[in-house]
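Incident log, structure service

09:12 report received: a user says their structure output differs between two submissions of the same chain.
09:20 pulled the input from the user's history:
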Amino acid sequence: MIHVCSMNEITKFIEKEKNLRTVYCTKTAVKIFHEWLSKRNETRPINEIAPYDLDNYLASYYQEAKQKNGTEYKPDTLSGYQGRIEYYLKEKGYSFSIVHDKEFAKSRKSLAKKRRELKVNKGKGKYGHTREVITAEEEKILIEKGIIGRESPAALFYAVWLNNTKWLGFQGGHADRDLKWGDIVLKESADGLKYLELIRDLGQTQNHDNPKLFETPKTPDTCPVLTWKKYEFHRHPEMKEATSPFYLSINYSPSIQIWCKKAPMGKNSLNDVLSYLKEKAGSVFKKRKWKC
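09:34 re-ran on a clean worker, output below:
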C-alpha cells in the first residue's frame, strides 16, 4: 500500500530541510571567516573574541573578502554572511549582536560602504550577477558629447537611468519596467547629507536593507541627487504619483518645464538603452535578449 504523507509530515519535512540548509550555510559562512582570520594569525573561535576586536576584524573582513577565484562577492552574499555569523554567535551564547548592538557599529558601517561600492563601481547589484555596465571612461565620453547630462530631455533621461543602473545594479528587463516613481524617495541623513533611498523590494532577491544613493556636493555637475531633482522638476504633475512609472517616454518637443510624456518608456526602448550608450561611447556591445 502506498503511504500518503499527511500535511503534518510534509510540514515537518520542509522544516527539517530548512534547518539543514541553515546549518550548512552557517557552517560555510563561519568557516570562510575563520579561514580569513587564520591568515592574520587569529585562531580563537569567534565567540571567544572580545567585541572590540571582533568588530575590527569584521570591518576589515567585509572590505577584503573575496571568492576563491579572486572575484568580489555580491552585496547580498556579504550581508548573508553577516546574518549567518550572527546566528552562530547567538547559538554559542555570545553576549552581543553584530547586527544591532553599538559595539559593532564600525563593522556595520564597513559592510554598508562595501555594498555601495560593489553596486556602483563593480556592477554587482541587488538584482542579479555582474552585468556589463558603462565604464568610467565611457561615461566621461558620454558627458563630453552631451549624451548624458541635464541640458536636454534625452540627456537627462539617460543620466537618471545610468545613475540607477550603477546604484541598483540592474538594467533593462522587468526591474526597470516595474520601477515606480514612489519606489525612490529623497531623504536626509542626521548630518544633513541628502540621499535617495529605494523603499520597495522589487522581489528578485532577498532584501537585506534599502539601497541608498548619496549626494556628492564636491562634484555637483554629476551629483545623482541633483539629477533626480531635475528629473522630478521636469515631470508632469500627474506623473509624480507614487504608482506612476519611474521611466517616462521622452518629450522631444518639450515645453519649458515638461520634458517627459505622460506615458511609460516602452519595453524595447528601455532594453536598448545600454546598447545605445555603448554605441555612442564608441564601444562594441553585443546585444542580448533580456530575461524577464
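09:41 both user submissions now match this output. Likely a transient worker issue. Closing.
09:42 reviewer note: Confidence is low (pLDDT under 50) at residues 125-130, 203-208, 285-292. The radius of gyration is 23 Å.
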